[in-house]
Amino acid sequence: MIRLIGHALLAFVLSAGLARADGEYLQFDLGPTDSTAVGSFERDGISTGAVWSRYTDGGSLGFSTSLSRQLSLGGRPVTLRYGPSLRYDGDVRLGAKIVAENYTSTDWGGVFVIGEINSIDWSYFSMIEASRNPAGQSLALVATGDDTGYAEQSLVVAKTISGSDWRIRAGYRLQAREVFVGAALNTF
């Protein structure tokens, strides 16, 4: 399976142009049984990211570095990121990650879609977020999980703070049945 992923990634490297969407993303969410911090930045088609999670049974820390490529699928621009990943949750584990994302502008705002698969525990993350401009409001549906049996879906609302790149966030985790609050910075 890893060889297949490697060949697919090599094909994308050879066939797609380097994406140029430099920016930073920071997020922190705090809930009664689960807290998460995310940080990533991209420069000249290379992304680096970290994710810290604390949950009832423990926690984990993950890192990744990836190349970004711009593709066109069905006439829509899609950014593909892929590269190695590392997770520490008592043991150090290495893997590979692939991410596809798209932002589509609309006359009322925009829609952002992202999907991610990581070979460590075959974890996944997917989100669709609709944002309304100039009000700076957004609504997101998020699904996460892995092959260990973990699965969670969340609804998240956010509001831009005074026209800045910062947003306040509030959400509800459907399986955990808990509310969380947070903040995010997005300069992409």
Task: Please provide a written account of the structure.
This protein is mainly beta and 188 residues long. Helices cover 7% and strands 69% of the residues. It contains 1 helix and 13 strands; from the N terminus they run αβββββββββββββ. It has one helix at residues 2-15; strands at 17-18, 23-30, 34-43, 46-55, 58-73, 76-88, 92-105, 109-118, 123-132, 137-145, 151-160, 166-173, 178-186. A 12-stranded antiparallel beta barrel has the order 2-3-4-5-6-7-8-9-10-11-12-13. The longest helix is centred in the first third of the chain and has 14 residues, at 2-15.
Structural topology:
Elements: H1 2-15, E1 17-18, E2 23-30, E3 34-43, E4 46-55, E5 58-73, E6 76-88, E7 92-105, E8 109-118, E9 123-132, E10 137-145, E11 151-160, E12 166-173, E13 178-186
Unreliable runs: 4-16
Tally of contiguous helical segments: 1
The number of E-state strands comes to: 13
- Beta-strand content bin: over 45%
Termini separation = 33 Å
- Which structural category do the helix and sheet elements fall into? mainly beta
Organism: Limimaricola litoreus
Protein name: Porin
Keywords: Signal
What would you say about this model in short?
This protein is mostly beta strands. Helices cover 7% and strands 69% of the residues.
Descriptive key words:
single chain, 188 residues, mainly beta, 12-stranded antiparallel barrel, 1 helix, 13 strands, globular, Porin, signal
